[in-house]
Amino acid sequence: MFTDLRCTVQSLEIDLDSMRNLKASLENSLREVEACYTLQMEQINGILLHLESELAQTWAEGQCQAQEYKTLLNIKI
User: Fold this and answer.
1) DSSP for residue 2
2) Can you give the three-state secondary structure of 23-75, one letter per residue?
3) Tell me: the pLDDT tens digits for 49-76?
């Protein structure tokens, strides 16, 4: 009976060590995924800022062209 309990305790300790190792491995994987996600988000934010800048420039150019068109239309009239 005592031998059985000792075997059970040893088995549980092995299981516990295995689970601790698995937990550490999963935590490392999580950190790697978070780092990759952070890098991707920074890249996407950079692209988004660039596109917003281009959009603002295009909108401003459109406004200038619309004003020039109105001016030319007024001259023609």
Assistant:
1) H
2) HHHHHHHHHHHHHHHHHHHHHHHHHHHHHHHHHHHHHHHHHHHHHHHHHHHHH
3) 999 999 999 999 999 999 999 998 888 7
